[in-house]
Amino acid sequence: MEATVKFTFSALIGVSLLWGVGPAVAADSEPATSSQSETYQLRYRLKPDERIHYEVTHVAKTKTRIGGVEELAQVHTVSEKVWEITGVSDEGAMTFIHAVDSVQMTQQAGDADEVRWDSRSGEPAPLLFESVSQQLNKPLSTVTINPRGQELDREQHGGSVATLGMGGLTIALPEEAVAIGYSWSVPREIKARGEAGEVKVIKARDTFTLNQVQTGVATIKVRSEILTPIEQASVKAQIVQQLSNGTIRFDIDAGRLLSKRLDWDETVVGFQGANSLMEYRARMTEELVTGPVRTAKR
What we know:
With 298 residues, this protein is mainly beta. Helix content is 7%, strand content 49%.
């Protein structure tokens, strides 16, 4: 059971930096009641030689109580990720290189001193963040997607493939033009370890709903649902960070994500014994950067 606790804490480190490096999967459309007849086609429209920057902020607090001993772990990460569009085919397939240019990281666990690091400062990274520092300003992956955001090809260049919440760099968009109130679902799998150390595959589903469209911007709600019954609290403690509940803003005309906000507020009782408790509170935001982009000092 000790491994479960370590998994929960270690997942906080760098997870927001590399968020979303897993593949997106196909969406299963599910029509919902809508009072509006106007429809909107949601498509990615990336252009060759573009460099698209996003600022990703992840704030998380994990409190555990085991045998009457309480411990608090906190993390605050701000990273600058970039997509470099290298080509667009005649069929509309878009290829881009995904990288992270800079990061500011703060972490504190229990009574230990707070550890801070800003990659732009030019200072060497603390040992805790050394693996993250080695991945900055380097291609993490080269990805090809179709206009619906589905991955056609991926070349991983090394580094972590940890994901937080939704499993893809992009969101899977519906095949047809949809009206406000329409929902579509994306199935995925989450892996966790059981009490005996075995790998368990948990089936889940992210459901997206087109909530509104205003001045060319679509607001999309997303909510995760676990489909596999989970009997072990230790397994649930591992997957709470992989659930997606929040809001996405998508620019219909420009064909790209404008912003994303995901929130977590989870409590798991008995994850390591009858009197144990884990509380996980977190927020992740991703914003398109339209002004000058900050860069790390050399």
